[in-house]
Amino acid sequence: MPAIAIIGAQWGDEGKGKATDLLGGQVDYVVKFNGGNNAGHTVVIGEEKYALHLLPSGILSPEVTPVIGNGVVIDLTVLFEEIDALEARGLDTSALRISANAHVIADYNRQLDKVTERFLGSRKIGTTGRGIGPTYADKINRIGIRVQDLFDEKILREKVEGALDLKNQLLTKVYNRRGFTVDAVVEELLSYADRVAPMVCDTGLLLSQALDREETVLLEAGQATMLDIDHGTYPFVTSSSATAGGACTGSGIPPTRLTRVVAIVKAYTTRVGEGPFPTELHDESGEFLRQAGGEFGTTTGRPRRCGWYDAVIARYAARINGVTDFVLTKLDVLTGLEQIPVCVAYDVDGVRHDEMPVNQSDFHHATPILEYLPGWSEDISHCRSFDELPANAQAYVKYVESISGSRMSVIGVGPSRAATIVLHDLV
Ligand code: GDP
Ligand code: IMO
Ligand code: MG
To answer: Which residue minimizes the CA distance to atom 14 of ligand 1?
Structure first.
């Protein structure tokens, strides 16, 4: 009864959506366990391109039951917009199941996300502005609204009143904005109750029973290790647990049932938003990666910051998540480079660091120690086996594998399902 977690090894956008979709035919459940519509997964199936935010990527596979777990924060407007858009394209979304314990993103939290960022000025995080941080803050502060509250108007009203007592003070007195009325917030949330009701269940029980029946459950992370609230580059992180531990707390599957942890890692590195990034390139090489890799955000359209592969981060991700397999994506993007630098360690004030520095300020001014590998110029997007890759591309994969802490089981050579080289099966 395999439960497989798919997580991001870097700062997101590694290609988790494609990897999840790739396994769609082999799994029974795909569970989103953290984050919300801050995520953006692009999946290409034949001529069709899908951009998913809140829905698990498994929604695109007809035989999969997609699940939104308890660790997710749900913007109900976005949920139904995404469902309607997929239905309009002929997809059946009726199998979707949603945890009664997932929290909902209320209007005031979307507003607070935006005004807090403006207030922070140069210290801003560069959030997606979707209300993610404030909603998780409410959850931890025990003033959040859960999906199940939509089915008891009295409780819902009490909770919204409690939250707004504080939030309206903040909005009007600190941020000089208009407050929200309890009636308007309650009315908006209640307007979704009837439509969401048939999807809501105890998803932890659902998944446990599936595992008992020897069915396969895939747990799909939003964001990534370096954006994790505990293990990432705090405070430049998202507000949820995006790592393998989060796959358990965010879904209700116990750690003893996880059989495999698959980390998606790009053949180079990108980041959106603020925060440290040791291998970041500010020159034409960075622009090359951005253009060749189409590195513009799926959610906000922002240009992604680009840099070379960072093996310190890969090793850190391998350790924190207990990675059993890496999927190395976007190898094709490196085609045409004469030589390809790879970061093997950091230099911090003349001291070599093979592991992540303990102090964040050291990480902020770490400079990469680079090894240079010879590049290749042949188009590799049609390669379907490792042997078909040019010798230098094979050597690049073998080299990064040797310094990244786990094996490279799958290689991506293009956005489509087919543009994939499988060295070891993941299911
Ligand atoms: P996610 O957030 O981790 O699901 O990743 P995104 O979808 O935000 O970003 C990854 C982008 O790379 C998407 O546009 C994918 O279609 C694309 N992609 C995924 N794997 C590959 C690959 O191996 N090669 C190329 N060229 N593109 C890929
Ligand atoms: P996927 O799932 C890349 C970043 C934001 C910002 C920080 C906090 O597509 O990999 P938030 O709105 O979450 O409070 O923003 O996290 N961020 C992402 N960056 N990919 C994502 O998701 C991201 N989700 C959030 O840019 O720096
Ligand atoms: Mg993305």
So the answer is: 42
